[in-house]
Here is the input.
Amino acid sequence: MKRIGVLTSGGDAPGMNAAIRAVVRTGLSRGWEVMGIRNGYAGLFKDTMAPMGARAVGGIIQQGGTILGSSRCPEFKTQEGRQQALRVLEKHGIEALVVIGGNGSQAGAHALSQMGFPVVGVASTIDNDLYGSEITIGVDTALDVALIAIDQLKVTASSHHRAFIVEVMGRDCGYLALMTGIAGGAEYIVIPEFETDAEDVADTIRKAYKRGKAHAIIVVAEGAKYNAQGLCQYFSEHHERVGFDLRITTLGHVQRGGTPGAFDRLLATRLGAAATEYLAQGKFGVLAGLNKGQITATPLVKVVATKKPLDLSLLKLSELLNL
Ligand code: ADP
Ligand code: F6P
Here is the structure.
């Protein structure tokens, strides 16, 4: 192997830069050239890429986002699109690719691998919805960002005896909401994986009000049937059932823009290094992830076909704790 490519794709995640750095520097130390492909799969179409030396990844381990840029690239979902991408890879003499990204990006990596191109994925998304890694790059930092917001919201909520509905990201997955809710001491957590009755939320919040709580926090996953707007609409029609005055905060993309913490930097570094190790071993079509404390290679075919389970016993635990 003489030359590999690396790209970051889909939603950016804090720690992607540490993963790029690890891929580049471990690749260089194996004697390979490493091409940095810009803006995810779009860079393969637009032919925007450049060789990366050790200095190109200096001083980035602590930066959020991705220095390579990212994108959603619909063309890559078609066979013709991927064929064009393969032509660009061939033109540059790129013999293997490292794809740093989430669910969709790894589906793309798998599709490329099915066409015979050597690919290794690196598990990176704040949603933590990717099978093959118990925790993905960016989750830990995104949780910390959400908790800073919740802690601050509690301060003002207490002053005004308010309840806050806090909507967190996660696409169709409730992991971020569940963990934010537990770590943030929420009174109620609403996630897509468990059907929530808005009346039950109202009842829980009203009881908290009557017990003399100064505030209440309801953490809602953006993908839940009742998202923040939906719940608020319901409560505005049944205000007397809630007790507290109500406000909404949607955290949105701030959760993606944090400065990667120690956990994400270490995870990203280990996974990036594992990716080049797998390429060197000829172990293609796999996802580098973290399972039971070990770095593992899970076949992409399994990754794309399997839904990552969410531990719903934690939802029960949160109910026990919100006395
Ligand atoms: P993430 O990787 O964060 O889940 P997306 O779901 O937006 O983000 O996927 C990122 C990109 O991966 C898409 O824009 C597309 O280029 C590619 N992709 C997604 N799904 C597929 C698929 N089924 N087949 C091929 N490429 C895909
Ligand atoms: O996959 C990461 C994520 O932040 C999801 O949590 C969210 O649903 C989505 O990306 C938002 O996408 P965009 O950045 O395109 O608005």
The first helix runs from residue 16 to 29. The first strand starts at residue 3 and ends at 9.
